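A further point concerns the way the authors explain their paired sequence and structure data. Showing the layout once, in full, would remove most of the difficulty. For illustration, here is how one protein appears when written out as sequence plus structure tokens:
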Amino acid sequence: MKIILPADHGDLTDYTLKTTDDHVVSQPRQYEFNRVAYAAPHIVVDPTRHYEPRSHCPAIDWDRTLGIRSYLYSLGFKVAEAMDTAQRGMGLGWATAWDLIRRSVSHARGIPGADLACGAGTDQLDERRRHSLSDIIQAYKQQFEAIETAGGRAIMMASSALCATARDADDYKNVYDAVIAESRNPVILHWLGDAFNPALAGYWGSRDVHEAMETVLDIIRLHHRKIEGVKISLLNAEYEREMRARLPEGVKMYTGDDFNYCDLMAGDSTGDSHALLGIFSAIAPVAAKGLDYLAKSDIDAYRKTMAPTVALSREIFRTPTQYYKAGVCFLAWLNGHQDHFSMAFGMESTRSMLHFAEVFKKADACGALIRPELAVRRMKALLQLRAGIEQ
């Protein structure tokens, strides 16, 4: 199969697909992992219903949204629900996020072996003004209570409200202490770097990563019996390895490094990382196969399978990194998990057609296009609509 794609400097180029056969996974749970692997999925909007695209209350296609979760469970993944991949704070406000969490927890109960954790933040607070630490604590507790009452476990998301208010590391420690102490279940902490959200620059009270790391480790040591793990998304493997080696026994390191996950999950003398990744939703069948090889201690097959996905992930998560959600949704559309390429907040418009052409090629190269004929047909339609490129 061939397709004409845009190239640098306004040129066009012929591209021949490497993958030509469908490889949709139809048999559930054929993979086993020796790492905990959370995939953070996106939401599917319903463009046939009325809603304000620039609001935080999009119309959700619940069948398609939950269908993506079912697909991830069928491959052996856990789900990290209502996280930044689901456009939390960039198109998905707390009211709709809570509806998503409630439905997703209920949905998981009907699937044998399904497991999920859900993002708890402070995004019900008015982002246009500063809030007291007491208000921030109460906002966190409200979301924790909602999630736990629904039967879920909380991922304590980084809070831009806290980052705007906190004066030093002690303010972070006091907030996290107050919230974690009252949690009913073990918590996953979430360290999201400012590449993903510029409003989080200086989180933990310092722009120096090592100083920030000491604050996180102090919080973890104090509450290690109530902390399942910590996810860090700093896009720097050495920071993750350094922190991983210093975690208390029983506390997992969840890589959120969409540039270096292949090496970090393989492990080294400092240990190995588990995963909580948005890219795993986009490359789910390939990642599941790779993690199965890892569980069988076939490191060569693991690397041969996973390494080609890194180029795709680096393209999807390229600067400005916070727009990576567009690439995740784009691949879901190409692979038939949804019928359109529309997103909350109009986020499908945040990347260029040249970017989507690169994502298309790199997805083909690593085997992430599970329905190549459909992908080509849809890519041609998008190129005609968005770039005027006729095939």
